[in-house]
Amino acid sequence: MLTKLTGGRVYDPAHGIDGQVMDLYIRDGRLIARPGDDEKISKEYDLRGKVVMAGAIDMHTHIGGGKVNIARMMLPEDHRADPVAHSELCRAGCGHVAPSTLTTGYRYAEMGYTAGFEPAILPVNARQAHLEMGDTPIIDKGGYAMLGSDDYFLRMLTAKKDQNAINDYVAWTLHASQAIGIKVVNPGGISAFKFNQRALDLDAQHAYYQVSPRDVLKSLSRAVHELGIAHPLHVHANNLGVPGNLDTTLKTMGASEGYPLHLTHIQFHSYGTEGDRKFSSGAAAIAEAINQHQHISADVGQILFGQTVTASGDSMRQHANAGLANPNKSVIMDIECDAGCGVVPFKYRDQNFVNALQWAIGLEIFLLVDDPWRIFLTTDHPNGAPFTSYPHLIRLLMDKSFRNDMFTKLNLDAQAMSTLAGINREYSLYEIAIMTRAGAAKLVGLHDRGHLGVGAAADITVYTEDADREKMFSKPDYVFKDGTLVVRNGQVVQVTWGSTHTVRPEFDRSVEQDLRGHFDRYHTMKLDHVKVSDDEIAEGGRGRVQVQPCLGRREKTR
Amino acid sequence: MVNFVGSSLLDSVRIKDVTCTACGMLCDDLVVARALNSNTLSVVEHGCSRSAALLQHPPAKPSARVHGKEVDHASAIQAATALLQQAKQPLIAGLGTDVQGMRAVLRLADHIGATLDHMNSAAMLRNTLVVQQSGWQVTTLTEVRNRADLIVAIGTDIVSALPRFFERCVWVEATLFDQAPAERDIVFLGGRHDDLGFASSPDGRPAQVLPCDMEQIPELVAALRALVTGRSLPVDQVAGIAMQDLQQLAQHLREARYSVLAWSAASLDYAHAELSIANITGIVSQLNQTTRSAGLPAGGSNGDSSVNQTSVWTTGYPLPNSYARQHPDYDPWQHSSAQQAAHADAVLWISSLDPSRRPPPSDTPTIVLGHAAMQFEQEPAVYIPIGTPGVDHSGTAFRCDSVVSLPLKPLRPSPLPSLSSVILDMEAALHASQKGDAHAD
């Protein structure tokens, strides 16, 4: 079957295409070069006047795994306000802050997103993350495996094990967890909390292991680089949400000694201590540092006002924030000598000084970072706001007068502490396409997604141009997933199952010997049962595993 | 594939690293022998009374039955489908299955507008309500094994719920953090237990026992919470336990580096037991102001944790819940089997792990998708035998800590269909008859 998309205005930053009118051709789920004149077009879509982009990619969204399911279980009151009935095509579920898996897939697709990446897969909980993502239809999935507070790694670090041995363990974890990247959350801090430490700054010592977060970052960022995987170490830095954490974040940028780092939900890590209330925006300094350091990328973790729930591996900081819970309940867990988690519902209010300034800080960072290839559009779903608010966020970035109207409604003290109203930048469609497509695919390491070149998967979103960008991005005309029309006029018209993207760097399999002994001696499950198989992911026709290429292993880069 | 690793005798094969779903601990270190001539299984290593009961049923393939009469599989599917199709308020209960079985159940329930309830939901709900009302701070088995220096079991001996708990999580050879496991302190608070020898340390130090009747646990945990919070109570004893003993326990908890407070929701079997659990987790919360402490919900059976987790991610809600209004609804009182018994006009009862869990007696037409060894006092309208996940076919199960899930592998070739394949057959029959209806219109 040959499909032609005719005459759309194409934004494909991976190929430098900025609003050029072009025809696209799809066969067998892939974009192909213009076929010969003798080849029959089976289906043609007239896209004249429409905006065409690759399907959007959410590179950091909590869509699967234990803490997301705890958030769901905790919040029946939120689900009740957004029931989703079944239709001819789609199954029932619920929406808003912690949607059911099925509704998550449908709503992402209906918004023109064709992939989402779960950023905090605990290796011992990887099976659950994949089970949940396996019940998330249409979109592609994948995730980052969490290391850095697991006792096996911290023991290696304390024992000053050779970097190659650490690299093998990191690679083993990627394979076992079926992940595409490595994440570290509050480096060392989740473990330190189990030893009753309540804070851990970058150069503080873990009370038991006598290593610092800086040691963890150095080792893991180097491992990721030497394994040759595309996605840089994904870092949720120490001191999340703490006034003054700006300094920790700036120091963290240097902690990897030049190895690439991705600093996630950086808004929550960009706080100063100026002003009467000892809480201020560090956005200018953070943005300036990102602009200066080519090895750093970040996603924002924008907050938007209303009810949400924060779900994080950072048990230390979530425990500290549990007193702010709204509604007043929280779940905090220590998990399997592997990691932890904390789930705390939040309600961000525009008349609250701190919340209003958080909102402004996120937007300041978006607008002050020059390079759209190194800054990414996220709300850290659902921590800053549910993903369904992305069209609103895009409008805030693209429409200065709208942004300033919103700003004037904020808490007045917060307004006085922000430079936002003085920033004139408006994102272009091309820049939005970088952030949400080309840049995201490059960052995650999706070689055949996020662009519209020949050979790319035909994940394509078509919008009607509208000055109201929120409206435009809320309801695409068409969404194609692997060449199949799945959404028309913002409504699912066909349910498909996407792929799970992983990466599999080479490693020395003998790493399992010691690891198996460790599990038998200290754990309560067998090492082989930690591993998630391809069959488990593909079970029941729920998609398949797609292994993305690695650059190849590098030895001893330092 | 079956993991037939290990030595093979002439008449049997040994299967290593078998996962047992008999309780919420999901031990995955069992060694099981399968007799080659009969496919009978026996637990050779790391068994317990419950694993033997789960795994040692002789293989059987009873016929499906409709009103007690043996029929072929297709006829039974037709009869079951016809009953569900006529029903206006179907109830799917029992739900003794795994993740894959529950996935199929949820798809069917969505299609026919069924209400869903698990046979253990009354106990599960005691924990669920605490999560939904106040939240909690809890831990998992490997953390307990390596960190706990004080374990307080409240209203439970733990081993009734998790038979190998002390073997696998307490009196272990080594811990990660140089703690000598034998130095751990164990306290049984509330309840009355016969033999607690298993809780004595390897060097013979017995556990501390502070017994009371189960009905007095509410006042006991409330008092302990008050003491841990620093309040004094002007009484000499609570629930027959001397105030001095309780004060010492409170002090012990404050001084412990990582205390674990365990309870079993099933054994807290009295009205509003969720308030007792909230007091236990309230103690944990208070202790975490200055030291480390964590709760441990011990228990689970018949796939309750697996089924609940799958329900939560698919519908947003734990069990019981309902699709009667075309979207998931959650009213744990209204949707409980006890309430639904009066309203349901068809019951689909599922029990694939334990043949003794039969549907409650009822006049409502009942379909049972059940274990091959099930015997009935009241023959259901339809009975279709199904395999057991982790014995007859593969699957996935969750542990009681709701974090670790394990792959279940078949242990023998089996003619029994899985629950999900039977539901697929029923859905095919439903679609076929609905198409037929449309044609007739």
From TrEMBL, chain A:
User: Amidohydrolase domain: from which residue to which, for each copy?
Assistant: 44-493
Q: Which InterPro entries match?
A: Amidohydro_3, Formylmethanofuran_DH_asu, Metal-dep_hydrolase_composite, Metal_Hydrolase, Metallo-dep_Hydrolases_sf
This protein's superkingdom?
Bacteria
Q: Which GO molecular function, any one, fits this protein according to its record?
A: hydrolase activity, acting on carbon-nitrogen (but not peptide) bonds
Signal sequence annotation = none
One Pfam family from the record: Amidohydro_3
Record protein name field: Formylmethanofuran dehydrogenase subunit A
From TrEMBL, chain B:
What top-level branch of life does the organism fall under?
A: Bacteria
Please state what the protein is called: Formylmethanofuran dehydrogenase subunit B
> What phylogenetic lineage does the species belong to?
Bacteria, Pseudomonadati, Pseudomonadota, Betaproteobacteria, Nitrosomonadales
Q: Name one GO biological process term.
A: methanogenesis
An example of a GO molecular function for this protein is: formylmethanofuran dehydrogenase activity
